[in-house]
Structure formats: C-alpha cells, structure tokens
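Today's session is about reading a structure prediction critically. Students often jump straight to the picture, but the first step is always the sequence itself: look for stretches that repeat, for charged clusters, for runs of hydrophobic residues. Only then move on to the predicted structure, which in these notes is written as discrete structure tokens rather than atom positions. Here is the chain we will use throughout the hour.
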Amino acid sequence: MSVALAHEYFSAHGGAERVVEVFHRMYPDAPVYTFFHDRRAYGPLAGYELRTSFLQSVPHGGGAHRALLPLYPRAAAALRVRPGTELLLTSTSAFIKCVSLPDETIHVAYCHSPTRYLWDWSEQYLAEEVPAPLRSTVRALLPGLRDADLRGASRVDHWIANSDVVRERIKRFYGRDSEVVHPPVDVDAFEARPEREDFWIVVSRLSAYKRVDVAVKAFNELELRLIVVGEGRERGALEQLARDNITFTGRVDDATVKQLLGSARGLVFPAEDDFGIVCVEALASGAPVVALGRGGATEIVRDGVDGALVADPEPSLFAAAVRAVGSAGLDPRELRRAARRFDVSRFETRIRASLDHARVEGRAS
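Below is the predicted structure for this chain, in token form.
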C-alpha cells in the first residue's frame, strides 16, 4: 500500500508531533507533507522525506507562524500529493487536511482537534493570541477561513479522533462520524520509582488557556514544592504570582521530563485539553494525576483510582485534591498498569486496522 503522511508544521515538540513520530516509524518510506520545518527550533528530522510548502521560505521563528494564518489554506492547496498515492494519513488540527490530492487517494485524518481558533475557541483565541490592534482584521478573516476549513474537511474520507471529546467536536463542526484511537505513549520508556521525592510537577506550555495559574495559586496555599516545566508567554506573570516553594525550569529535554515524572509525588493538570498525553506519561511513571474533570483527562484519570478529577478550575479545589491524593498512598505499579491502556503497541495495532478498513471501504461518497 502506497502511503503518504501529512502534519501541520514542525516547530515545537508536543503530543501531535509524537503521534507523527509513530506514524513515521510505521511507514518510514512515506513522504511527509508539511507547511514548514523550523529546523532551529525543532531540530533535524533525520530519515524524513519532507515535502514543504512555500511557507518554508517565510520567517516563522519566535511564534511568527501565527501571522501566517491567512496563508495556510493557499499553502495547503499548493501542496500536491503525488499521483499513485493510495492513502494519505494526516495528523491535523488545522489546515494541513486541505492538501491537494489525486482523485484516487483515500484520505484518513487523525484529528487532534477541529480547528479550535475557527470554531469554539475563536473569541478566546482573539483575546489571548492576537494583539489588540489586529483583532478586528483577524475577526474579519474568520468566515473565509471557516469556509476553507470545511472544504478541506469534506475531502477527508475517514476520520480518527484522539479522544471522545474530539469525536463529539468532529460531529458538531464537520458533521462526520469518527472512531477514537487515543494517542500513544511508550510506557516502557518511563520508570516508576517506588520512592518519590517531595515535589509535585506541572508539564505544560505556559499559555493562558492551560490555566497553570490555578496550579500556582493552589501550591501557594499548600506551601508544598511545585516544579513547573515549560515555556510560554505567561511565564513572567506566573513567576510574579508564585511563592518561593514554586520553581520554573523553562523548557527541558525529554530525559529530564521523564526523570522528574519518575520522582514526583504527582502531576497537576488544570487545563481543559483535547486529550492530555502528559497525564498518561505521569501514570507510566507511577505518578498519580490531579486533573480538571473536563476534556480528555476524563478518559485517562479514574477519580480515586489514578488520582483525582476536580470539578472546577478553582485553586482551593485543586489544593484539596492534592492533599487527598498525597495521603491516599496509590501504588506506582498499579498506576503504571493503568497507563498500558494507551501503550504505543496498542496504538499501532489500531491505526493499522483503521487504514486497512479505509482501504477496503475506499473513498467516501
């Protein structure tokens, strides 16, 4: 089966990029279509046959890629998958699903989320991500971008959602059914240490919607050690808010994240996210999770079994949940077993089965 891959862009390492890494291991000879590869920020992509768009020649470091928003539909249309490709597997959360395809190519989209800044997150996006002088201009662009997004979605033949939450959103915004295949975690790459150190951890991009301020305020109240791993525009404000028991590391490498997760008392996850892969990584490391009881975390964390689900993003509620989980004495070995539900081997099996099914079913009518 002739397979091609596609992904929005390579500028930062996150959950979506880890999914693409698994796709590439599964299909190492497949070309990878993408808007651009920011080599300085992302690092090399050894062994990848990249097919980049004209946006590759446009400056996109330091978050400048956000200014390219009006160009993405045109850049996608200009990316043409080569004839003879039987199946395109796309990792998408925005416009890469709009690539131009031969009529015979079956398009399977692994969806991390329908394009959030066009649909249910548009006002929040304008408030948090767009400078005030540009908001009216960007708001005027949104209807046309929504039309382009819907045209691209209509060319997808088979949808795979990364969570039940995303499946519901695909149905709501695109009117399409999908199956759920949770993102992969290589559980064996994490270590569950029986002796834990005296700190909790947050691993997150420091953006407003990630609600790291809730964790900081909770640990200001608790006066327990908290290590915040990650970088973003909210870092300065969070550091101003935090007391001396809270440490900010900035961005660290994967080995350091694994070491910290393996040593921490637990992970705090206050965001309403589409999935929350770091929650699985924490369980694989034997660390319980205190998470907001909304979004994809509800598919990972079983309240009272793997940690706690908190009803609202209130610091006092998170503080109470951390106290309760900290005194519960949850067994790291059991937490690690719970993470096996999301192991990479299961993911690969499900994806291969989905592609085989798509190949048999062919193009959607």
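Discussion point for the tutorial: The chain has a mean pLDDT of 93.
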